[in-house]
Amino acid sequence: MSGAALGIEIVVVFFLALFLLHRYGDFRKQQRMVLFGTLLAWYLCFLIVFILPLDVSTVSIDNEERMAMLAVTAEFSNQTAANSSVFSPKVCYKPWSYIPDGIMPVFWRVVYWTSQCLTWLLLPFMQSYARSGGFSITGKIKTALIENAIYYGTYLLIFGSLLIYVAVHPQWYELQTIGITAANTWGLFLLVLLLGYGLVEIPRSYWNASRRGHLLLKTYFKAAKLMTEKADAEENLEDIMEEVRKVSESIKYNHPLRKYVDTILRKCPVDYQEKMGRNMDDYEDFDDKQNTYPSERSLEKLHKQVIYAVQRHNRTRVQWQILLDQALHLEDVAKNETSSTHQFVHSFAPAEPPSWFSRYVYTPTVEWYWECLLKQWFYRLLAVVLSLFSVAVVWSECTFFSTRPVLSLFAVFIQLAEKDYNYLYIEMACFITIFFLCTCVYSTVFRIRVFNYYYLASHHQTDAYSLQFSGMLFCRLTPPLCLNFLGLIHMDSAISHQQKEQTAYTSIMGSMRVLSFIANGFYIYYPMLIVILCIATYFSLGTRCLNLLGFQQFMGENDMTSDLIDEGKELIRREKRKRQRVEDGENRRREWKERYGNQRDDYTTKNLYSRPSNRSGDRDRIELLQDAEPLDFNAEMLSDDPLESESGRHAGGRYLSMSSSRSRIFDDV
C-alpha cells in the first residue's frame, strides 16, 4: 500500500479543482487555454494543501523510528550489561499512508516550480492574451507582450542582478534560497492580510446566517445595489451595440476590415445580431463613397469593449435571478415559521419537476424542520466551533516561536500524537488545521472584489481575467501558507531551532538562515499583526471606511442603508408580482385547456364533417384576400425597434425573396 494515499489524494484533488472551475468558469464559451491555466494553478495549490499532512506524518514516522532504534540500542546495552535473558523491543509499525523515501522531494520540486512558473511568467501573459481584442493569435500575442513589457523588464533587471551576485558568490543553492525567500515574503505579506479578515468574517457570516431577519435585510440591500449595477450594464451594452451598428453599416461586405466586423458581430447577443443583419446596400462598393472608416486598432478596442460589456450584462442578469430566488426563499421561511401544519409551503412552484430526493427524503415536513428550526441552531453551533478555531490560530500565530515551553496549541497536539504513535491522528489534525487556514484565506480571495476588474462570480459568470488572477493569487499564497503551518506545529527548524528531521517540503524551500533578518525577524513577528487585523475586522473598520468614501456598504444603523433596504424590498415585491401574474396566466390557460379543450375539438370535428362543400366560394374568398395584399408587402418590415427603423433594414437581414411564400398565407381559410 506504499504511496496509495498519495495516488488517491492526487485524483480526489483533481476532481475538486475541476468542480470549482466548472462552478465559476464556463467550459462552453471560455478559451481552452484560460481554463487549462486556471485548472492547473488551482490543482497544484490544492495538491500542496492536501499532500502536506502526509509529508508531516511520514517525517513523524521516520523520527519515531530513529528514536525507537536509539531506545532499543540503549535498552539492549543495559540488559546485556545486566546479563538479562529477556529482551522485548518496542516495534514502530508504518501506517498504510506511509510514503517511501525519495518520492516526496521529487514531487514537491515539480509541484512548487511549476506553480511558480505559472504565477510569475505564464498566467500574467495569458491574462493579457485573453483580455486582448486582437483578431488573430499573432495580434493577441503582440498585445500581451506589449502590456507585460514593464513586468518582464523588471524580471530581467532582477535576473541580471542575481547573475552579478552569482559571479561574485558562486553558490547556486544560496541564490535559489534567496529567490524562494523573496517570493514567500511577498506571499506572507498578503497572506496575513487575508487571513486576519477570514478568521473573523467566516464565523461571523455563519452567525449572521442564523439570524433570518438580518439576512433578509441584507438581501434587500444587495438587491438594490445589484439592480443599479444591472441597469448600468444594460445601458453600457446598448451604447456599445450602437457603436457596433454604426461600424457595421459603414464597412461593407467587400471592405478588407469586414471580416473583423463579422467577428465582433458574433460576440454580440443574438437579438442584437438579428437587428444588425446585412441588407441589399451591403453589396455597394466601399470605394464609391468617400467615407471615413475605422482603423484596425479601433476595431480591436471595440472588440474588447464588446466582450467585456456582454460578459458583464450576462453576469448581472444571472446574479439578479439568483438573488431574487434567495429573497423569495427567505420570505417563505419567515412566513412558514408560524405554520401549525409543519409543512413548508413555497410561494411559487419550482420550475423543474421534483427529484426523487425531494419526493422521498427532503419532504415538505423535513424541509420545514430544517429551514425553520434546525438550520439556525446548526449555523450557530458551527459559528461557535469556527470561532474557537480562530482563537486557537491567533494564539498560535503569536506564540509559535516559543519552543520551551511549547505554547502553540497545534504543536502541542502534534507532539502528543507523536508520543502515542497515533499517525492517523497526526494526519487528521494536520489536515483539519491547514484546511481551516486555507478556507480563511481562499474564501477571502473568492469574496473580494476590485471594482469590475476582479470578481469571482459563481454559476459560470467569472470572466477569464478574474479566473487567471485568482490562479496567480493561489500560487503565491499557498507556499507561505504551508510554511506558516509548519511553523505552527514546530516542523520548521528555521523557526523552532530544533534538531530534528525536516519535511521534504521544507528541504525544497531551503534554509532561511541564509537571510537571518527574515528568518529571525519578519517570519516570526510579522504574523502577530493578525491580532490587529482581527480587531479591525471585528469592528468593521474597513466597511466603515469604504462607506465614508462613497461605496455603499451594509451598515446596521445608517440612513443610506435604510433607504437601500426599502428600495430593495420594493424591487423584490415588484418582481414577485410579475412572477405571480405570469404564474396565474399559465394556470388560467391550463384550466381553460383542460375544461374546454376537448369540447372545442369535438365541436370542430363535427362541423368539418357536417359542413356542406362549397369549394368555388372558398376559392373566390382566397383570391380576394390575396389580391388585397400589396405585392411588396413583408410582415417582418413592421418593427418598432429604433435600430431597424433607423438602419432601414428588416430583422435578421433577410431579403424579400428569402421570406415565406405569400401564396400559402391563407390556405387554411
Automatic annotation (TrEMBL):
Pfam families: LMBR1 (PF04791)
Membrane topology of the entry: Multi-pass membrane protein
Metal-binding is among the record's keywords: no
Record-annotated membrane-spanning stretches: 6-22, 34-54, 110-129, 149-168, 180-200, 377-395, 424-445, 522-541
Region (Disordered) residue spans: 639-669
Coiled coil (residue ranges): 223-250
Keywords: Coiled coil, Membrane, Transmembrane, Transmembrane helix
Localization: Membrane
Entry keyword annotation includes Chaperone: no
A GO cellular component annotation in the UniProt record: membrane
GO biological process, one term: adrenergic receptor signaling pathway
Domain of life: Eukaryota
Similarity comment: family membership: Belongs to the LIMR family.
Name of the protein in question: LMBR1 domain containing 2a
